[in-house]
Every structure is written in structure tokens, then in C-alpha cells.
Design a protein that fits this description.
Blueprint: E1 3-10, H1 12-25, E2 29-32, E3 41-47, H2 52-63, E4 70-76, H3 99-110, H4 114-124, H5 129-147, H6 151-160, H7 164-176, H8 179-206, H9 214-217, H10 224-243, H11 247-270, H12 274-301, H13 309-343
Antiparallel strand pairs: 1-3, 1-4, 2-3
Helix pairs in contact: 1-2, 4-7, 5-6, 5-8, 5-11, 6-11, 7-8, 7-12, 7-13, 8-11, 10-11, 10-12, 11-12, 12-13
Length: 344
């Protein structure tokens, strides 16, 4: 069982309400500490397999709109003594839980809370020196791999490419209606892709790429397999942050879908191969749309949504616009794929 410590610092008039929420929601332990120097009351809740999102929503509702409180979530490997759940017969303590109810409860227990996810994805949406440097380095490595037709070098570029963060952040921002996060994620993603195109183009001007490279030419055309790959990458990206999968491995998947097409686009523009550049641009646009669409669908499936009703209305609007845009773009690209295949 993965335990979490939720530390709440609350004004005295809200302490009683906060302290009662823990036992009601099934917290393993609740400790109320002595008042701090500023008069606020620290309360620590030990959480086992419970719906953390529901608990945090109730805590925030009890604490109100005042900013004189703080909730901190800490990971805990082990709690001693631990009380294991008895999955056997509980007698007549209540109605038997349905199979669907058990599955829904299990998913809620496994899913990270909205607040935890926001803290996790917000860092990946920022444009900082590390992000820019990793984009430059990964593009250089990817460009060499494309030029030399080397899968091993390309995989190395994917490992260090930082393109997972802004795409997941945008999808998450749409799910919760966080416009500021969406704008920041778009700015970071556009900066990263544009920088990748520029760097690859400069390298191509210095060393003309070999158009006989299979890996290079594979990124100059969009097909149905590319769409499937990007959809799988986006879904895996969202699952990685909601269920604790390795973000490094999933980041490789997203980078496979985005970095090589961006580098190829820059190389083809630099050497004036406009027909191939259009193909690479289509592949890049299709992959961006598929990655974001799949990630948004997974976030909705996982029940990621704002806490307040007004925020949910804004989130639904943002999600509808975003999904409609990506779906329309994908449909246009599918039609173009069909037309190109029919003309061959």
C-alpha cells in the first residue's frame, strides 16, 4: 500500500471541521498538533487506499476561500503498524459493493489528485534554460541520427528530448480549464519545436543531408501508422502522470512522434526540398494533434476535472474547443493521406 501524508495548516476556527473530515473519508490516522506561533493549527492525515481527490475537495471546501491555510502532500513509503484491509466477508455492515463500484473506487484510489498532477505537469510547461538546452542537444543528436540512418542514435536523442512536458501540460490544462497553464504550455511547445526546426536547418546548411537515408525519408510522409503511433504516445503520456508510469520511457514515445519530424522539416526547408518539407510538416502537425487529443481523452476518462462548478463549465468549453480542433485537423490529414495514396 502506498501511503501519503497530508499536512494541513488551518486557522483555529476551521480546525474542528478539518479534523473530522479525515476519519469520515477513511484516513488511517489523524493527528492535531499544538498551535503554531501565528495561531494556526497543524493537522496531519495519514492516507492509505482512499480517494485522495475527494478528500482534498472536502478539505478545500471546509477551509474556504481565505488564503490563511496550506495543504502539503508528502509521499510515505511505510507506516508501522499498518492495518491491511480485509477483502473477505464483512458481515452485515452494509450493502454489497457492485463490481462496477469496486472498479471505480480502485481507479480513484490509484489516481493521483488534481492538485498533485498540477504540481507535476506545471514544471514541464515552463520555458527555461534547461528546456532550451535539452532541445538543442536532442535536435543535434536526432539530426545526426537521421543523416546517418542510425536508429540507435535516434533513440539516444529521444531519451533527452524534453517534449513530453508541454504537451501533457496543455492536455491537463484543457481538462481542468486552466487557461494560464494552456497558454504557457503552448508557448513552450512552440518554442521547443521552432528551435528544433531552426537547429536542424542550420546543420543541414553546413552538411547537406543524404536523401538516401531511410530514417530521414520515413519522416517525410504521413500515413495511418504514424497517426496510430502518435495516439498511443499521447495516451501513454497522460497515463504516465496519472498512474505513476515511468515518465522517462513515455517521454521517449512522445519524442519519437515529435522530434524527428521537426528536425526533418528543418532540414528539408534548409536545402529547398519543399515537397519533402510539406510531408514532414504534415507528419509533425498530425502527431501534435494526435498526442494532445489522446492525452485529453485519457484525462477525461480518468476523471480529471475542476473542483468548482463554474470552473467545470469553463473546462468543458476549453476541452470541447480543443478536442474539436484536434479532431478536425486529424480528419483533414486523414483525407490528405487517402488522396496521396490514391494518386500513387
Amino acid at each position: 500500500m502506498a501511503f501519503k501524508l497530508v499536512q494541513v495548516v488551518t486557522p483555529p476556527d476551521r480546525a474542528s471541521a478539518v479534523a473530522t473530515i479525515g476519519p469520515e473519508m477513511g484516513a488511517a490516522d489523524v493527528q492535531v498538533g499544538p498551535p503554531l506561533a501565528d495561531g494556526r493549527i497543524p493537522i496531519t492525515l495519514l492516507l492509505g487506499e482512499i480517494d485522495r481527490q475527494a478528500l482534498l475537495d472536502r478539505l478545500q471546501a471546509a477551509l474556504g476561500e481565505s488564503g490563511d491555510w496550506r495543504i502539503t502532500i508528502l509521499p510515505t513509503d511505510t507506516a508501522i503498524p499498518r492495518e491491511d484491509k480485509d477483502d473477505g466477508d464483512d458481515g452485515d455492515e452494509g450493502p454489497e459493493e457492485t463490481k462496477e463500484g469496486k472498479e471505480e473506487r480502485r481507479q480513484a484510489e490509484e489516481r493521483a489528485s488534481r492538485e498533485e498532477l498540477h504540481h507535476l505537469v506545471a514544471d514541464g510547461a515552463r520555458t527555461n534554460q534547461n528546456f532550451l538546452l535539452l532541445v538543442v542537444l536532442s535536435t543535434v543528436v536526432a539530426t545526426v541520427g537521421l543523416e546517418q540512418d542510425s536508429v540507435a542514435i535516434l533513440i539516444g536523442a529521444m531519451v533527452i528530448a524534453p517534449l513530453l512536458g508541454p504537451n501533457v501540460a496543455f492536455a491537463f490544462g484543457a481538462a481542468i480549464g486552466d487557461r494560464a497553464l494552456m497558454i504557457e504550455a503552448v508557448r513552450t511547445a512552440v518554442t521547443g519545436v521552432s528551435l528544433s526546426i531552426l537547429i536542424a536547418g542550420l546543420i543541414a546548411l553546413a552538411v547537406r543531408p543524404d536523401l538516401s537515408s531511410g530514417e530521414l525519408m520515413a519522416r517525410t510522409d504521413l500515413d495511418y501508422a504514424g497517426i496510430a503511433l502518435a495516439l498511443a504516445s499521447g495516451a501513454a503520456a497522460a497515463l504516465s502522470v496519472t498512474t505513476g508510469l515511468s515518465s522517462t520511457l513515455v517521454g521517449v514515445m512522445v519524442a519519437v512522434a515529435l522530434l524527428p519530424p521537426a528536425a526533418t522539416l528543418g532540414m528539408m526547408i534548409a536545402i529547398g526540398e519543399w515537397h519533402l518539407a510539406i510531408g514532414a510538416g504534415m507528419l509533425l502537425a498530425g502527431n501534435v494533434a494526435c498526442v494532445n487529443l489522446a492525452a485529453q481523452v485519457v484525462f477525461v476518462w480518468k476523471g480529471i476535472k475542476p473542483r468548482l462548478w463554474a470552473e467545470r463549465r469553463n473546462a468543458r468549453r476549453a476541452m470541447a474547443i480543443s478536442v474539436a480542433t484536434w479532431v478536425a485537423l486529424i480528419l483533414v490529414l486523414v483525407v490528405l493521406i487517402a488522396l496521396r495514396q490514391a494518386s500513387v
